[in-house]
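Model: You mentioned two targets. I'll fold them one after the other.
Researcher: Yes, keep them separate.
Model: Target one:
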Amino acid sequence: MPDNILAMSGALTSAATTGSAGILSPTRRIQISNCSIVFLTLLISACAAPEILAPRNGTVPDGVNLSGNWQIIEDESDGQRRLREAIRSTDGVRDGDLRRPQASGDRRQRVRGGLVYVFLETGRSLKVTQTPYGLFISFDRSVVEEFRFGERRTINVGAVEAQRVAGWEGNELVVETLDRNGMKLTERFGLAESGNLLVRKIVLRSKSGDQETLTQHFERRPG
């Protein structure tokens, strides 16, 4: 149990054994009652189970097909800058901490915070192939990402491990990835402008609930 909870527990015990002739005044009883509520709240928070991603619908909506060749509209350098800022504000690590030596040496990495962003692929050109069972996205013809409709599995990049669920919400494909430190990546893919525009919304959420959202637009290209 965390030290602050143990300390509060001791305070409550001490308070319960004090008072004139062993009788507590109404005001004192109210104070102890309020302390008890705070104590129980902290205890529940400390013992809360880790977040588990709920599975999503694996059935493709009628008439929805994200397949095609897509080219990003936004400026790439500006998009990368905004993405770095979003990661920095949600990974749970202060920039100043990165310059402090760690116990095993000066490892200037965000190893103590969320690392879910390592599962995020980006590119200017996307080739999307949709089947009845999943979606394959080729980013700049160099990296291919696979999302299985209705999947709920553990994925990893090197030593970094995360939960992954993917499925449909209305006409959008939603992919959620949650790492062990509570940082979550949500990606939404949908069509606009009569199917000629692919919209990708990226949401990075910190363990404490802070969110940063970026939206990418891709126009359909022949081929």
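Model: Target two:
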Amino acid sequence: EIRTTRNPLFLKLLQNLLISIPPTWLTYFTDDLITLVYEMWNTEQLLDVLGVVSALAAALNNQFAPFLPQCITLLLDCLFSSRSTRPDICLKVLESILALRHISNDYLFLIIPEIIQTASRSLTPEETRIDALDTLRIIIQSCDCQSYSAEIVRCIKSCIQMQGKLREIALQVLYSLQVSLGKKFGLFQNIFNRILDKDENYRSLINVSISTGKFSSFEFINTSEKLRNSAFVSIPQPTDSQIQSIQHKIEREKQQRELYKILINNLKRRRRKVCAVSIAKNHA
């Protein structure tokens, strides 16, 4: 029905279904679901399709790995093309990337630079920059990002010059990087010492070591794994009246398709009959 009607409500229903059934059941339908995602990627339902990707990746975890190459490419292309104009799509893309982060370490060299570029770019809407920074924080807290430390530091430095929420989230990225690197953060310490000489949180993390540093050990570090504290389960549940309305619409469309088939068949039969009469007259 999703392919036939392309109704976003069915995509939301699918998204809710993916997070509520056992992952072992999903393995029987994974190929079909991924094919559906590819088919609908460039449609007006992209926002809901991205929600399906997030839910599917979170549910399947490592079993999603065979689809990573093409999926990561689609997500990053979408982030690149949407970051100036569509904060809603960018949020869904970033949520999908986070859902994939535990199985996509081999693709961090593609993912992290694109997120950094989105967060650093002045033409990007502020809410998308904030979401990109928060995504970076979560990735730092759950993946080994040491190889990208210099790029992350440059991103942080440019963002903490701003005011408000953007600076606040940038500081969270900095604190997370300090804990993640431990004493190795000393390489970058001089960059921030003057800027953050009065930031007690920053100064308290200067001597933290990797062996003892845990993100949850510091109350001022945000350790939420959700952007904007969002969760897949927060998707609005369709009402019974909405579902019934769609069912009626589907039935009407089915009837119309059946009538169309009958009409076409009648026209074909009539055409064959006319041809037969014509041939008989010519023979006569």
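Researcher: Noted. Anything on target two?
Model: Residues 230-237 have pLDDT under 50 and may be disordered.
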